[in-house]
Amino acid sequence: MIKAVRGTRDLLPPDTALWNFVEAAVREVFRAYNFQEIRTPIFEETALFARGVGEDTDIVAKEMYTWEDRSRAASEKGQSLTLRPEATAGIVRAYIENKMWDRGLNKLYLIGPMFRRERPQKGRYRQFYQIDAEVIGPASAGSDSPARDAEILEMLATLLDRLGITDWNLELNSVGCPNDRAKFNEALRQALEPVKDKMCADCQRRAVTNPLRVFDCKVPEDQPIIEKLPRISQFLDEPCRKHFEAVKEILRAVGVDFRENDRLVRGLDYYTRTAFEFTHGALGAQNAILGGGRYDGLSEALGGPAAPGIGFAIGEDRLVMSLKETAEGVLRNPEVYVAPMAAMNVEAARLARELRRHDLVVELGDDAFRLKKSFEAATRVGAKYILIVGENEVKAGAFALKNLATGEQIAVARAELAEAIRSGRV
Ligand code: AMP
User: Fold this and answer.
1) Residue 7: is it exposed, middle or buried by C-beta count within 10 angstroms (0-12/13-18/19+)?
2) How far apart are the C-alpha atoms of 110 and 88, rounded to whole Å?
3) Is residue 384 lining ligand 1, measured as CB closer than 6 Å?
4) Which of 133, 59, 70 is closest to 311 using CA atoms?
5) What residues does 313 pair with on adjacent strands?
6) Are the C-beta atoms of residues 312 and 275 closer than 8 Å to each other?
7) Model confidence over 2-32: pLDDT tens digits?
8) pLDDT in the model for residue 76
9) Which protein residue has the closest C-alpha to ligand 1 atom 13?
10) Which atom of ligand 1 lies nearest, measured to the CA of 126?
11) In sequence order, what are the residues at sequence separation of 6 or more whose Cβ sits closer than 8 angstroms to the Cβ of residue 120?
């Protein structure tokens, strides 16, 4: 038997209703903040991610699905392509390619699958889904303002509240600008020099290549060493400090709780200032539901004009998981099961069409079913009513409508059926 590939999975009903519920809430909330949808390709040139995500990140170094595309001429080398492991690089490429700075400030969101070759476990997949949003544009349009950072964070808090997720924590930091980080990096390198030999193999490598990434380390034995390293908060210059203060001031004013965490560091040169993560208590080891931050240098790193930006990616799989217990009433079972008696499929189809045009959820049976089987089928799909369609009923223009929970039954004229079902008065 052929099975779904390791790390991928089928999303089946009724869970898919939860996914749709989440996506509908996302679209509604984001709309209120004037975000608009962008859809970019699922694969891009490998070089985009190498530059846009960073060569020495785990994603680029170990986790990408990359292949050489077949070239037209046998002598030619194929293009190197990669399934997108995240959305920001593709969106910034689209921003540059489509000259979107002409539109001023762009507030964009994207919902779709991402691909990373990670070791699968609960809450970690090789094909997973992200809800991604980015604010990007020329500085003259206010894209670098702390008001944008605060707005995005407040929008996320609103979304989580709307979804009924209450026990989230917002961890907030400023990683400064490239100058601050160069100093911080140097301080880290010096601090790591005498202790790095006691650390894990990854950290020994990071201590030389990119000391900032030491903060990604999850090895328990390394944590006491990491705890004593210098902190980025000691290295922020005056403009970065002011920017961070302004973000926090707005968050306090609008009533969004946060916790400062100066160990939350994104290690790439073009990451600037605000960095954040939302975690959720119920998720266990993979407890980050979303992460994001500012990337004022990314557009330039990808060959575009200066375009400050800030964005985030929500892990939709984890969001849905943290929602499962709380989400009631998301499912819409059929309101009515239309049960045709012998040779009544045609009439039943006509009736079902009428009811569906009144925006009712209708399940349609089959005239090969005996009445008992129709009742069983109606119960299995969770229908509220069963509607019997026999020759006499069609002639009389009135149908037996039975409430499957109470057993109560009434005869209803054809023209009044939709209203009787919707009102739930039987
Ligand atoms: P990142 O792009 O790494 O900052 O991830 C953003 C969010 O995507 C994380 O907070 C997770 O919720 C989610 N995520 C990342 N990798 C995976 C994965 N392999 N499986 C499921 N969710 C993921």
Assistant:
1) middle
2) 9
3) no
4) 133
5) 132, 291
6) no
7) 999 999 999 999 899 999 999 999 999 999 9
8) 78
9) 315
10) 19
11) 6, 7, 126
